[in-house]
Amino acid sequence: MHSIPGRRLIMGLFLIFLLLPIYWLVNMSFKTNSEIVSTMTLWPHTPTLQHYKRIFTDESWYSGYINSLEYVVLNTIISISVALPAAYAFSRYRFLGDKHLFFWLLSNRMAPAAVYALPFFNLYSAIGLFDTPWAVALAHCIFNVPLAVWILEGFVSGVPREIDETAFLDGYSFPRFFIKILVPLIASGIGVAAFFCFMFSWVELLLARTLTSVSAKPIAAIMTRTVSASGMDWGLLAAAGVLTIIPGALVIWFVRNYIARGFALGRV
Amino acid sequence: MDKTVNQKAWFLVLPVFLVVAFSAVLPLMTVVNYSMQDTFGNNQFFWNGVGWFKELLDPSTDLGGRFLASLGRNLFFSLVILAIEVPLGIVVALSMPREGWTVAACLVILALPLLIPWNVVGTIWQIFGRPDIGLLGYALNAAGIDYNYVSNDIDAWVTVIVMDVWHWTSLVALLCYAGLKSIPEAYYQAAQIDGASRWAVFKAIQLPKMNRVLLIAVLLRFMDSFMIYTEPFVVTGGGPGNSTTFVSIELVKIALGQFDLGKAAALSLVYNLIILIVCWIFYTVMTNAGAERKPQEGAV
């Protein structure tokens, strides 16, 4: 790889640009509110854990994280389990309407959530799923299922077809081949797809907020509500923000080489 | 690819088809239905034909004016962020370290903004940009620049654009980096023997090799910025006035704020149609590029 002059400087400046706002959030989360409002300090002079403590002890706060995790996990499980067989089909076979179907899936990944907010609200109210994790989990399928299909298709195509044929010659039935041979072979692909389903469901706010009111309210919505209600509790807001970054930051190391692939729907 | 024709494959695709049809086709039908009707509450609906669509495309009406203004703002926003993020992303990708642990470290830090919930991205920039408590706002004002994104249109725009650059440039950079990595070392050696300048290497080797990923990056960024909602909503709430109200924000205002079902539905359909056209271009480009790439698949 041949790079450009001054690359260390450019990279350094860009990384600082990326990290500075995040640092400010973390910094803020350890300050007391009086310190935030009254003085401009580059690091917390009287560091405190009061905001984190409040989040972990106040049910209206920590339940938001649990609600979010609930629908995110549900969504990831649904997305991966329906996408796996489809990815195999797209990778191995040609069938009536396959190209159109593939395009249709992509177009759903790209559909603006704002368009679906209102009809989803009506639909899930009508079938009694409104304000449950299922509503959000199903709603997020609209972009996560296509994503999972596209990513997994790339990984399945990387498995030589001879393996399928040998397995079938050895008398494996299709389901047995699928679970015993194919799934272990593309385990890392499933991990990557699951990570991206998790991530895209975790970062989405509009649908999650529209489809819940009280009992399934996600953390993102709780954050927006509390800001307006409690007269700008900046420290608490910052602490809640820091906690939402943690799931991504924890797994980022393991998927660092797949990030581009996941965002480009497995096409890189 | 010599795929075998097998109609039974439909059984494997069926679950995906059902799930997506349930959450995409069903709601879309409601939208089509609403877009032709008017409502005065109480679930009473009146046939309105193509009335909403006519109004939507006529800038002299309230609805049309708002839609076209937000569309114009949104297109301008998309073009500006593309003009900044694409060149910057290429430069950052070219600046990646060659080997060692710094590569992994850079990748991790680059990916970090991509994985932050969108509303928290908004919160981060809100906290960072405020003149009273934010490092950026405080520093700018201390340096004598009058900056306040809450009251000044231009400051609000700059904040939203810088926020998007912060959030998404990494994606362009990571995609370009993936493209750059696939260039065999032999190309560079050949260029060195020929005595090619750095610029010539970039133009003749690196840029053509990045073509495909750049296309993907441009289309992804265009599409995602075209439906941006959460980040500007959290930071500016679409204001000051309507200056940062993009199409999605306008749509949610009409749909969930005013519960104007007919207007919102008509807007949704036109909005969706634009996305669909861009999407089709995206798909065609990707599948064509995929076909060209097939012979050297192993290299990637």
From TrEMBL, chain A:
Ranges of residues in domain ABC transmembrane type-1: 65-255
Broad class of the protein's primary localization: membrane
Source superkingdom: Bacteria
InterPro entries listed in its UniProt record: BP-dep_ABC_trans_perm, MetI-like, MetI-like_sf
GO BP annotations, alphabetical order: transmembrane transport
Keyword annotations: Cell membrane, Membrane, Transmembrane, Transmembrane helix, Transport
Keyword Chloroplast: no
Protein name, UniProt field: Sugar ABC transporter permease
Species this chain originates from: Bradyrhizobium nitroreducens
